[in-house]
Design goal:
- This protein is α+β, with helices and mostly antiparallel strands and 106 residues long.
- The chain has one domain: hypothetical protein PF0899 fold (2-Layer Sandwich).
- Helices cover 28% and strands 23% of the residues.
- The protein is built from two helices and five strands, in the order H-E-H-E-E-E-E.
- The chain has helices at 3-17, 35-49; strands at residues 24-29, 58-61, 65-68, 75-78, 100-105.
- Helix 1 (3-17) packs across helix 2.
- The longest helix has 15 residues, at 3-17.
- The radius of gyration is 16 Å and the shape is elongated.
- Bound molecules: zinc ion.
- Residues 69, 71-72, 74, 85, 87-88, 90 line the site of zinc ion.
Length: 106
């Protein structure tokens, strides 16, 4: 899904929860592009979808995900889509190709 589609989905989930106050923490995992570009597009779309969020603080986080090296099979964690193996420097097998999001209201 595009950042815009994910933002629309999140906006619907927030509206369904009946919460429009407070802070929203969004966890983004996966993705093959630049994280800054994704965050900017996502935030723009989210605020366009839910203008009431303007006052709330939206925090976008990129937790590390488990990766498996395609060269030596080493398991390691990284939040970067273009991570390299700390053991041998090879690239890992693709993780999630598309961004997936989770969120919490706090
Ligand atoms: Zn390796």
């Amino acid at each position: 899904m595009t950042p815009e589609e994910l933002a629309r989905e999140l906006a619907r989930a927030i509206a369904d929860s009946g919460t429009s106050e407070g802070r929203i923490r969004v966890f983004v995992r996966g993705g093959t592009g630049d994280r800054g570009d994704f965050d900017a597009a996502f935030l723009d779309a989210l605020l366009a979808e839910m203008p009431s969020l303007q006052g709330a603080r939206v925090e976008i986080l990129h937790p590390a995900v488990l990766r498996v090296c395609s060269g030596c099979g080493h398991f390691f964690e990284s939040a970067e889509h273009d991570a390299t193996c700390p053991e041998c420097g090879e690239t890992p097998f693709p993780a999630w190709l598309e961004e997936r999001i989770a969120y919490e209201l706090c």
